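REVIEWER CHECKLIST
Item 1: Sequence provided? yes
Item 2: Single chain? yes
Item 3: Sequence as submitted:
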Amino acid sequence: MQKLQRIAALSLLLTCSELLTASRPAQDATWALTHVTVIDATGTPARPDMTVLIRNGRIADVGKYGSIEIPKQAQVVDATGKWLVPGLWDMHVHLSLASQASLPLFLANGITGVRDMGGSLYDLKQWRKRIAEGTIRGPRIIFSGPYVDGPKRGAPHRVTVTSVTQAREAVQKLKKLEVDFIKVHNAIPRDAYFALADAARQAQISFAGHVPRGVSLTEASDSGQRSIEHVEVLFQPYAEQARHRGTASEATVIEKAVVAYTDAEAVAQFRRLAKNGTSYVPTLIAYQAFLSRTDPAASQDPRLKYVTPATKRYWDKWFPAESQSAELVQQRRVLFQRFFRLVRLMQREGVSILAGSDLGERNVYPGFSLHDELSLLVKAGLTPMEALQAATRNAAAYLGKLDTFGTIATGKVADLVLLDANPLEDIGHTRRIHAVVVGGTLLPGPTLRAILADAEAAAKRQ
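Item 4: Structure as written out by the authors:
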């Protein structure tokens, strides 16, 4: 009976908090979460019965309940039976492919920041500005704008380079456009890629993305590439070798690539990445979604109601649900299982793993799919804490913002997620979101449910 009363009281307090934060800006608010279990994402054990004091959008203090003086004017939220983690980051998204309608869905899923890996610079700048102003809801956005690539017919949001001169010019152009970093793709000529790396170093802007064909993983890391995206990139050289040798089918190409890329070579590469500080974004969920394209269950996914018709048309154009031979499906499943071992080796060898969903891929859903990625990282062999860090501490460290985001500590921005269950017992519990705090503003359960309802309605209108 007492437990039910506490839950009812918490629900009432959170509902009152919604009204309070609507009438009083977060930067002027002082409030406290009490009796909460804090998982600060530093790797230390969970700390029960804590108080987190929030003032002016930041964490003013964290301490054992009773050890912190709570100001008389502060709003107090009793979070008994709840777990508090830092706000999550999705480190590989393509917001332009999911449209503005996707933005609130990140917050509803506890994702307070994203790194956009290629999209409309105009849209991204406008969305970031409007989110900061409070005219629309959405996560913090770090973006590259258009990515730098070689010639590709019809590919959107890119700067095409075919020479050393064009690569250097692309860096200067994007720097003037005030992108946060430069995204590279896989068709950049080898000499142009290294020219881009040199120009980026001189311009003091980081670059990240795919590894171009003809450039090795270690060469990319040595050149200063900050992160490498997608586990399948590891097999790219071996797949190309198999194709050049006249291998008959795609299934055979995959089979040969899996055999050719050994653990010994992987470990040597991962040690180099760790030494250089090159992070890796596996995007396991994107490949799982790729495998499930023709699965009838995929077409019944309840999260499809949040996807706009325009995004579905994009999926049909670029990621059609085409039938595949049984042999090809089997080899791709073998490859996917190999991904798990490689991610486990990355973690063991000290590579900083970042959680990313590759939003834009068919059957990858804004906000929701990052939680799927965390579960896949645990399946690959990471502990729940290590998976959580991939979306919190590691992301902040990568962005050079660990003094501001990524863990729960005094002085940091109050981007937080309040959970109904312990994610260190089951990483799937990151989905059990009770409330989200963004820049000190509390979004309680009723608000999150309203966001989901509005997103569903917006998807139908577009």
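Item 5: Key structural point noted by reviewer: Confidence is low (pLDDT under 50) at residues 1-27.
Item 6: Recommendation: ____
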